# Entry
Amino acid sequence: MKQRRLGRGVAIVGAGMSKFGAFPGLATRDLFVDAFQELLASVDKGFNPQEIEALYIGNFSSDLFEGQAHTAPIMADWVGLTPRPATRVEGACASSGVALREGLIAIASGLYDIVLVGGIEKMTDLPTSRVTDTLATAADVTYEVPAGFTFPGLYASMATAYMHAYRATPETFMKVGFKNHENGALNAKAQFGQRIADIMEARKASAIRKGRPVPTWSDEMDFLHDDRANPIIAWPMRLYDCSPISDGAAALLLVSEELARQFTDSALHIIGAGQASDGATHDRPTLTGIPAARHAAKMAYEMAGVAPADIQVAEVHDCFTIAEIMATEDLDFFPAGEGWKAAEEGRTARTGDRPINTSGGLKSKGHPVGASGAGQVVEIWKQLRGEAGERQLSGDIRLGLTHNVGGTGQTCAVHIFERR
Amino acid sequence: MSEKPFTGAVFYEYLNEHKLMGSRCKTCGEVHVPPRPGCAACAGSAVEWVEMSGQGALAAYTVIHIAPTAMIEAGYDRNTPYCTGVVALAEGPRISAQILDVDVRHPETIEIGTPLEIAFIERGEGAARRTYLAFRPEK
# Structure
């Protein structure tokens, strides 16, 4: 594959996100304004939003979730940016990772100097069965869905292939969810920002209040093995292996490299970008990893001129716990088949040598699908600038990565960021 | 004789006749299941229908407790879970299919690599009748 370079450098100089969660009465446009306001406040040297020249908005399926298509111009209007070009980008759960790439390319081409990249999704208005149906439209509706596959089901089938190939067990997956809740408990923006232990205590308190038998879990793993507390969704994926149904928005301000210092002295330079595509899940030679993620990662590493070992913090697409383990292998943080051991050993914890999803990941922070990719960048923005509060990694954190998957890997976008 | 178009609509017409059909490239011999009107391997435009033997092996699976609307209508739910998976056909291609006659109460006992044979599920009545692809362990 030919090594690609950007026409000119591009940097992120502002980032913001709404809280992720279930917000009855709030539409995507309301959440987007929230993210945009936080972005404005994040620009160190101040910023006139009228300088923005174009918008790229990631959004998977407001058509089905909200009954609203054509969402990008609405976002532009709600933050006072019409008549600037506003383009919706759809790549399923990778929509805003791809929107970031489109914004990057637009500035690198020389067409624009200042671009707003956003991600939006409003999922909680629909009942769960219709959310399940809507998410399944990111798979192959003609050939995968008639077999009874759901989205959790497709990832669960990758989990059985992975367990068979490498002797991992469902307990490994539980430990990934446990770890991400530990991180999410330190993130005020998280939808389920509680440690598993806190959730257990809350359940016990609720049982006492209602005069019901009080559960007697011995520890977190006991809780996670309880079919009632942690029901099977698609074996081996249980409730606490699955990211939630969420509402949320995120926004990023991209500028050409030469303008970055007008806005901040600690910009995030986008030094690597890769994107790849693939066919239906069943059509892949291997189901123990995501080929498009490997392709996208290779492109991003080559463009950035960095090695996997150089990356100090990564936000990866843990829509399901198995997906986080596969991601750490597809990104070459660990050899194929070793990711589950690294997770077991705590190497991907905040205190480990390879911190993954310090934000809480999609599991704990929430997964408003079209906003998730941009949301990942918000965490890297905070970690690289030392603004992640209680969950801030120690040391001089300069190099971060995001890995955003659409569907089960029909789309993947990987970006590498450096604070110079 | 002109061949039927290599589309999903015709694939399901054949499935209604209990035939699992794919397309074979007349240039390079690549077999696609489901069928494609052109060859994705060599970009050749001359393809022909070919019937699969119905033999295969289980490549990946799951047991689904939270079902989509269509499967709820077919009678499945959290108390009646079902197995679905990826089947590696003897001819090489892989396809998604429901997996019958496995112990969905003990999903850990289902084994990847299990030899499978084709089965057909009928759902709907009259004009709405439709055949769904399934496999079950070889007897």
About this structure: The longest helix of chain A spans residues 151-166.
